[in-house]
Design goal:
Bound molecules: pyridoxal-5'-phosphate
CATH superfamily of the largest domain: Type I PLP-dependent aspartate aminotransferase-like (Major domain)
Helix content: 25-40%
CATH architecture of the largest domain: 3-Layer(aba) Sandwich
Number of strands: 16
Number of domains: 2
Structural class: alpha+beta
Low-confidence stretches: none
Largest sheet: 9 strands, mixed
Number of helices: 12
Order of helices and strands: HHHEHEHEHEEEHEEEEEHHHEEEHEHE
CATH class of the largest domain: Alpha Beta
Mean pLDDT: 97
Shape: globular
Distance between the termini: 28 Å
Length: 380
């Protein structure tokens, strides 16, 4: 049975081995725009492609502001800082996410609290979030929610649109607003994914995108903070540019800042990639349809975009019957040079997060033990 699957995947990718999980596709103006950077000498943090790329992201996502950063992890770090997360606060996120989410929260000086996944969307479960906040928090006179056990303020919640699939973000935002908790969406994987016709990353106080080489579009390395809040955007931009006070020739910095801005060369690649985004998404959705049809015949569960969602299908996911089956499929596929991968090890199972508080993680544990991602690149 596994042979059927790997043969089908190899055929899709014209038997070019190894078949990567997700590789970038450069078939537009990438080289031309890079040449322009070199010819103009604007290769670093200043240059016209950075603002052009930011504008393209605003136009596409409908966000009012976009601030380009050197990667998605840094964008998340500054989204948290700029939205008011302070040292020793607590931040709610998911146990099932890429480690960068939890690391950015830690780097903002906050403690992660890991909550469960929703089986319909793979993202944060609104039910589990609501139960945690009802049982474990009190709202004090300052209007903030505090953890009854630790006495710490819970200032933010970072839900993650996993593998590109939109989560139930409207419910999450509604629940958090009742507790005065800011929502910062980790939309690193979900450029081109929409929930009820609104782009992922644009529901909360801020959202972040990643343009790592394995994402739907890439800038080599890169990230973007998106927000409708002018003050938050200005603060993030200021912090990301060493907190320099804009001036024609003077070097003055008014606080300890960061060197997080995206270089012009990376933004140049991003502009060229954005020009092809719709083509990529159309191809990725067609590939997902192909997989869905194939796995339906084979009786294997293929994860389909949830109700109210339009997904970019960044990674295509199958759900096998148990961990033993998952592992033997992974073993076989990788032997065949088909790069299938499991979901991430849950955050509280990593040594640095083993003592962090968690909710009940029954759904995340189920998903972690059965889920496999299969090759999903655009056929370039
Ligand atoms: C869910 C998630 N969050 C955050 C990141 C961090 O993005 P970057 O690799 O651009 O730092 C990634 C991707 O790598 C991711 O998949």
């Amino acid at each position: 049975m596994y042979k059927n699957i790997t043969d089908f995947i190899k055929e899709i990718y014209s038997n070019r081995l190894p078949v990567p999980l997700h590789e970038p596709c450069f078939k537009g103006n990438e080289k031309k725009y890079l040449q322009e950077c070199i010819d103009s000498t604007f290769v670093s943090y200043v240059g016209p492609f950075v603002s052009r790329f930011e504008q393209m992201i605003c136009d596409y996502t409908g966000s009012k502001f976009a601030v380009a950063m050197a990667n998605g992890t840094l964008a998340l770090h500054l989204a948290l800082v700029a939205s008011g997360v302070r040292r020793d606060d607590e931040v709610l996120t998911q146990a099932m996410t890429f480690v960068a989410t939890a690391n950015a929260i830690s780097q903002a000086g906050a403690q992660n609290i890991f909550l469960d996944s929703d089986l319909e969307t793979l993202g944060m479960s609104p039910e589990k979030l609501s139960a945690f906040l009802k049982e474990e928090t009190i709202i004090k006179k300052d209007g903030y929610a505090y953890n009854k056990k630790t006495g710490r303020r819970i200032s933010a919640c970072v839900p993650v649109h996993i593998f590109g699939h939109p989560l139930k973000i409207a419910d999450i935002v509604k629940i958090c607003s009742e507790y005065n908790i800011k929502v910062i969406e980790d939309a690193a994987e979900s450029l081109g994914s929409w929930y009820r016709n609104k782009h992922t990353g644009t529901f909360g106080a801020a959202g972040i995108l990643s343009f790592n080489g394995n994402k739907t579009i890439t800038t080599g390395g890169g990230g973007m903070l998106v927000t409708d809040d002018a003050d938050l955007a200005m603060r993030a931009k200021h912090l990301s540019t060493t907190a320099k006070i804009p001036h024609a020739w003077e070097f003055r910095h008014d606080e300890i800042g960061y060197n997080y801005r995206m270089p012009n060369v990376n933004a140049a690649i991003g502009c060229a990639q954005m020009e092809n985004l719709e083509i990529f998404i159309t191809q990725k959705r067609a590939l997902a349809d192909k997989y869905a049809e194939f796995f339906a015949k084979d009786g294997i569960e293929f994860f389909k975009e949830p109700e109210d969602c339009r997904s970019n299908y960044w990674l295509n996911t199958i759900i096998l019957n148990n961990r033993a089956e998952r592992d033997s499929f992974l073993e076989y596929a990788n032997d065949q040079q088909v790069m299938a991968r499991p979901g991430w090890c849950l955050m509280p199972n990593l040594p640095m997060y083993k003592n962090n508080e968690c909710g009940n993680l029954s759904n995340a544990e189920t998903l972690e033990s059965k889920l496999v991602n299969i090759p999903s690149s655009v056929i370039c």
